[in-house]
Amino acid sequence: MRKAYLYLHISILLWGFTGIFARAIDLTEGVLVWYRLLFTSVCWIIIALITQKVKILPYKEALRISYVGLLVAVHWLFFYGSIKYSNISVGMSCLAMIAVFSSILEPILTGRKFQWFELLLGMVAVFGMFLIFEFSAQFRTGIILGLISAFLGSYFTIQNKMLMMRHNSETVTTYELCSGFLYLTLLMPLYLWFFPTDKLLPAGQDWWLLVVFTVVCTVIPFNLSMKALKHLSAFTSNLSINMEPVYGICLAFIFYHEQKELHPGFFAGTLIILSSVVVYMILKYRQLRKGRKTTSDVLPGNEIL
Predict the structure, then answer these.
(1) How many other C-beta atoms can be found within 10 angstroms of the C-beta atom of residue 134?
(2) Average pLDDT of each block of 10 consecutive residues along the chain (305 residues)?
(3) What is the residue-wise DSSP string for 206-263?
(4) What single DSSP character describes residue 301?
């Protein structure tokens, strides 16, 4: 059990480095996401060939999973755009809103009833985001992009939960990453039309950063988290994954000293958002203990971060 906890928190810490790599790699968000999807898809195909756990799916089911793959690609696009247009800390604070959006979207998508504490805590988190937005005027474009990213992240996480009830994680992840890469490749001409850039090929060290980024922030943490989930509950996993923004912000302070760029309102708003997320998970756990399960209690969301 201790090894499972260790695996889970190592994977979350590695996901926290996502923002560090996004800022370090000198590419626009669209080009960065294209390369990450390319490298990650190649790695995942190699893993699939070795493990032979990926199943061939019927056309309609493959198309449904590919739609979620498109959501993953666009989610990454807005998330890295948020970091490029603001900073890592702002992008990570917006990422914490995934749990808030999920509390609203899940009843709509799954048909279960809304619960008072979800709506109340959602309003508290929105107030926290308002403080960040109000006192971080220079980062407002990044905040808007980050909120769109969080909404998309919430939506594809809920979709993943339903897909994971019918297919194993290796199959779902492989189809999503490969289809996300194909969709983004088709959309790149349109993206480059609106956001032209002279730098389509990474410079010297960017190649190595992209490779390390792919392995360290995607392949390794996903495998570690899957091993951990064999011994941990869905609640423990979901609560722990909500620590990713905390790790990401702390790493931004260590590597880029971003605390010097931020207004006290940012810290107050982020603390309110994270507190509402933790309280939400505690209340969900108490509800689970009483025996009222929902789809979000059954299976973790196979987050691809």
Answers:
(1) 13
(2) 82 93 95 95 90 90 94 95 95 88 82 78 90 91 95 87 82 92 96 93 92 91 78 65 87 94 92 87 75 46 51
(3) HHHHHHHHHIIIIIHHHHHHHHHHTTS-HHHHHHHHTTHHHHHHHHHHHHH-GGGG--
(4) -
Element (H, E) at 18: helix 18-24
218: domain range? 2-298
Separation of alpha carbons 115 and 268, rounded Å: 26
From residue 21, alpha-carbon distances to 117, 294, 299 in Å are: 36, 36, 29
Question: Does residue 240 lie in a domain region?
Answer: yes
Total structural domains in the chain? 1
Element of type H or E holding 139? none
Asked, for residue 304, whether it belongs to a domain, the answer is: no
- Would you state the structure tokens that stand for residue 26, as one six-digit string? 């000198």
**305 domain-assigned:** no
In a domain, 204, yes or no: yes
